[in-house]
Batch of 4 targets.
Target 1
Amino acid sequence: MPANLLSPARNGPSPRRFTMNKLTLRRTITSLALAAAAVAGTAGTPAFADAHHAPAQKDVSVDTRGAESVSGRAAVDALADQLEQVATRNGWTPEKLEKTLLHDKTLKVTGPGGLVYADEPLKTGQTSITDNIQTPVYPTTDTFALHSRSSSPYKLYLDFNGNTTTGTRWNSELNGGRAIVSAPFDLDGNPGSFSTREHAIIQAVWLQVREDYAPFHIDVTTQDPGLDGLRRTSSSDGYYGVRMVVSPTNAWYPNAGGVAYVNSFGEVRSGTETTAFVFTNTSGAAKFVGEAASHEAGHTLGLSHDGTSTQTYYGGSGNWAPIMGVSYFKPVTQWSNGSYADANNRENDVAIIASKVYYAADDYTNSTSSTGTLPAGTARYGIINSGDVDLFRFSLTGTRTLRITTWGNTGAVDTNLNMRITLRDANLNVVGAWSPNGDLRATSPALTLAAGSYYVQIDGPGEGVYPAYGSMGFYGVQLDWA
């Protein structure tokens, strides 16, 4: 079985009641427009990508009472009759903004009306998150040249090299106009160079974030795309992204594990790029950094937290947790639509992300007329999206005994996809199906089959506490003679 799945690509209080007036009517129209855009996005078009960029609106001035930002009921009161304007310019409905502010104190409102998530750091007793990752999966010369989809115009740049952030909203709204100097990612006290283990951790983080964003047409990369590859200068500029600064430097924003502006991915700001931060001062473990990076990137794409009626972050159940909850402590982490018990947020994570960066093109179809082939001893690699089915054909000239095996992400990184193998005959009748409980991989037993044509079907069912909705990601499949 191949060691690598894919080589790195080179090339509280009750909400305010709204009366039925012109303001409410405008809000209703906005809500319907955003809902329609999200539905359109599920077809693969980023219909909602510019929803918070146009048209230009008058300036906002929020009374933060001398602080850089305000949260909770104080934020709702400070926004007053500007709540609708701030919500709309940040791509949310007024109802969603008010509800979220009242339930989630990690959401902050800045003086000029920006929305910032300041995610909680690891608590005492949680900072012992560790890993045994010591050896890089790829050559260390590849560490800062990793791409998941190098041809995509949308970039999620994982920046471990240190960065000086200037001219952004972080500087003007939350750091008194001063530059933010972030030190490089560092585990051994030597920030001037990366050790072998640090290379291994960086590669593992990239693999984890790549897995989370596998269904989407976005390039998760460790190679700096440059300013022009990250900033968006106009609504017609189709090449842009976000710099995810991974650094122990948090003095400028203490008491946070990561910070991100809501819906900032694709924001039109001609001179600056979109930046978010993961702070590694409490833990540099690959699991923590990877989950945090995917989570903060989710905020930049418009996602809010997955919680419950009593919890800001849902920690999951069994072996599963939602990425937009707290997912550091579970092996299976997925995007969620709030289908778990007592969910306080039923937004469609997958559709919202796809509305910004498209779905990835289907690599293998479920049509017998255009299916892929699966020769014995040859591995095939693919991606399962929500509701996706991949089909492979093989033929036998005589009776043979064989086994079909799948595997997931590369190295010591958890997969999001719960794999199922279904074997079908030439008439698509089911010969057998395998998706063992408690194991995300699937392997058939030794099968003795007569001559003829057969189809191997790969999909991602739910299991136990999690549904098929978020069972997406990379897989490998191979047929071998037994």
Target 2
Amino acid sequence: MKSLATFNWHELLEQTHGCGGHLAAAHRGFEKVTLETDTRQLGSHDFYVPLSGASFDGHAFIEQAYGQGAVGSLVAADYLEAHPELLRFPNLIAVTDTLLAYQALARFHRRRSKAKVIAITGSSGKTTTKEMLFHYLSAMGRTQC
């Protein structure tokens, strides 16, 4: 399901500042964007967040993200230093760690949201419990898992 969280340019820069966030490439206007970490799900008003794992590096897909219509992207400063050709893309925000920046943006969104949040933990039954709660709560109003 697509995220309902949207951010404007000022919020993106302000909330990533603590992670070293700074404008690395020219800003071209946009109103609001949603964040996306998966280029397969990317839409034309999305801001790409490349994450790295043990067997992948989302930075390898930054060019593809722009090709699919992304209006901007986070990028790890050390990756950008090794790949200066990325500076040709607009709305590029360099940070020390893209995961930490993503978490900072999520924290900001959570604090400004009026949504009620339920956390389900445990070693078994989480998916079943989540689905039951989703079914029940959907009858009461807008619900997102």
Target 3
Amino acid sequence: MTSPAQAAEDTVLSVPDTLAISGIAGEASIVVELPAGATPTALRGRIDSTYTLPGSLVVTVDNREVASVDTLTGGAVAGELGPDDVRDSALRLGLRAVIGGDDRCFDQSGVSAVLEQIEIVYQVPVSVPESVADFMVGAPRSVTVAVSPGSSAAVGEAALNAVTLMAKTFPRPTEVDLNLQTPGPANPGLDRVVVVTEGPEPEVDVVDGVLVVSGPPESLKTSVESLASDSVAILAKPSAVEPSADIADVIPALTSSLADLGKPSPSLSGVGIVESTFGVSQSDFGRSVSAVTLDLVGTATPVQGGEGRVNVLWNDVLVNSVPMTDDPRFATTVQVSGPAVQRDNSVTIQLEYLPRGGDCSLAGLPARLDVDGRSSTISATAGQSATGFEMFPQVLTATTPVTFGTQQSADDSLVQAGQLLASLQRLTGLPIDVELQEWDAFVGDSRPGVAIGIGEGEDATLGSLLRYAPFRTVELENNSLTAEVAGSFSALQAYLNGDRALLVLGGFGPNSPPEAARLATEANANPTGWFSLAGSIAVAEPGQEPVFLDPESLSAQPEQTAAGSLRSFQWLWWIAGLLLLALLVGVVVRLWRRRS
């Protein structure tokens, strides 16, 4: 029996990419993936333009014009979309400049237009899930993993693995989190619930649209892992438990083609400057990397020497430039290493083409470059390059140990761990397998891990950058000053403790748990999630916006340290004032002694 369909609701997909063009007849495109079965209804965005000649900047979907703005002003764009615009669950979104009747290429060679703040509004037919297969497909608005307050460690571990599995299955904008109560959604097709609980026998079942995972403590995690199985049993039966072969997929190879990594195959065509950008993340390789090599091959329009070039930019920095020739074969190699390799990187392929004699009226015969995604490869060298929050998630191994401290209740720590792990899972195609450990086991482990609810004393054991204590010690050359703290605070920290990468969330004071919850929630919030974190430390105080810090901004703290009141860094001003006062007193005393 098929469950009754419910009314589809609008979902807004915020596209992180931008479309940039330069020069007369500039044109570029990107591919925007949609959830399976989604029907787009509208496109929104904004175009910023520096063009100085009259014309139009046209937004296209599959070469169909959906919106345009004046080249001289730019502005907001809005257009209607429909099911015919979708190809293989994706939209091909383009931007081009239309400037007719002018052949002055170089008059517009330095100008550009950027389509940004792109949003795609879409709908997906929804119905109340009746089987595990129904539950694990579609594009729900939210998925909540629910457990009872005071649940056992086995339930908590299974729930955290359910969170990472749901975050991997349902990409943004679907919200995934963990809750201590079972919500009663008004639309269970859009707002789905997974309940994890202990029971006499291992079972995965859908009851009234709610996915229930139950079983004895020793088998709960296996029951959750069964949801990752694509076996015939789990797809054919409303209720089934069959463990997946291994929830930790094989780590990707260090060398893969663009196509194998899911990257687009750039195709550029136009006169002037045309470019296409795609991302390369360390998580594409399932580990931390210290160097990347791109071997790009393809086909280009044969042109006379000096008429065209192909530029490659890494994170907006030119790293290679190849002249186009009368040979249609295109090949180039780019190598980057060290600090240039960030957690998330952009590769821009830029085509520069100027017709012979500088006559841009020949725009009807543009140059073209097609990069072969199957033959072009990206190779990485394993090693550490990123620091702070950018170390995650690629630094995580096949299994991630998680532990809870004593600064707050285990229930609070469980919910916050769910938020952070869901956000990290969004950044990697590899499943994050969670092992919930007791404190001593976690401290003795050497694998990268996550510690939640850490308080005073526990921070020193983990070698945290910023201590959760009521004072802040500043080491001077021959002395030290200590500033007392007034009030609670919480801090999320990402750092290396020796060779071990740690993500630590903790705080000081009775009101630190709500601040820790705020940091965890904001790290998982749409649309940016983990990208909202900067540096190595995020500090939250009641009534204040989070403050982001780098280790370089903190003084040496070999013994004891803590977070001072970070409101406007007043404690720094107090210390500076004390030092200045001491200096002035010393000068006055010396002058008085000389006169005496």
Target 4
Amino acid sequence: MPEAAGKSRWILSDRHGAVALLVALALPVLMGVLGLGIDVSYWAMTRLELQRIADIAAVAGVARYGASGQAADALDTAAAVAELNGLPAGTRGGDGATTLTDSAGAYVATIAFVPPATITVTIVKEAPRLFSALFLTSGTQPVSARAVARLMPRAHGGNACILALSGMGETVLDDGASLSMPECDLRTNGVLTLGNEAAIDVANLIAGGTIGADGNNACSALTCVQHAAQKADPYADLYGALLGVPSRSVNLPPGQTMLTPPPTGVAYAWQPDGGAYTLAPGVYYINGDFRVNAGTALSGTGVTIIVNGNIAIDGTASLHLVAPATGATAGLLFASTGGLFQFTGGAATTLTGAIYAPGANLVIDGDNGAAGDCVYAVAAFVTLKGGALFADGDCAAAGMMPIHDLLGVASLVE
């Protein structure tokens, strides 16, 4: 009997089977936790990789915007850089102007441009659930990364108000020149020569060649950059196709002072010689040279004048003109395919808009001044002999495209 009682106590005290049962019950949970841990680690690594791609793409896109000023160009660059760094090349979508999507398999990238100069890149990958799919309904887990880059403007300059395109030419500021545009740059693809007594108040002086100071100490107070990269014509794509002047021309009726643009396919043959003229909004094509003689006054808002010859503004001529703020010629005030664009004497001007004469020598000779909000100039050569007519106010509000020059700093802000 004592022996039987001992066996009973041994059986009741044996817990080996209970432990095995507990292990059997807990094992699936432990395996699930282990599998989830492996999945979470994989997703974290995936997110780090996506973040790397997004960061690089956002910075590249906004840097490109600083160089071109075109949002669509910036979006394309960001997408291309993302693909070069590991994002599979996919199907492009979006409007291409403010948003671009790039979809390939498990990846979707969304790139957005936010004015004035911000690029946002968001990348989402449907990452597989390697182990957790055994007890979760979905076989994938969305993993995302987001980067925001912004073009931080320079303290001074970064846009040019004057650009001389010819890399073989010389931009000259003679001894009598006076140039005041403290918030923007003077840029030339060629050599820049400064007269000893030239008065210069600009943000930066940039030359594709050398800068000859000839005793002028401007570069001791300004940022002067020599041997800069050649700057492409920033207005060629924007305005180039508009420079073709119709061959058919008509004369203005004698005594007509309230002007409207010529009919489609027609240009004016016009040499205003004294008197006051008011120009209605629109594009005025001029066949031949356009000479505004002494004693002439031109005024108008929303006006673009396109000439297939030389332009000369003489003597006591008075111009009070504002370019269109919208439309195909937004921001364009004067355009010429001729070889000379000259302001002479004491021409009194109030101009807002761009002067675009890609094959001309722009000559400012005499005492000229501008009271307009903004004047840009793009020409082959630039010669300043007197008070220049350039101002650097609120050009964006006037519909003008900035002439991007020294890039801002592309910074990752998120």
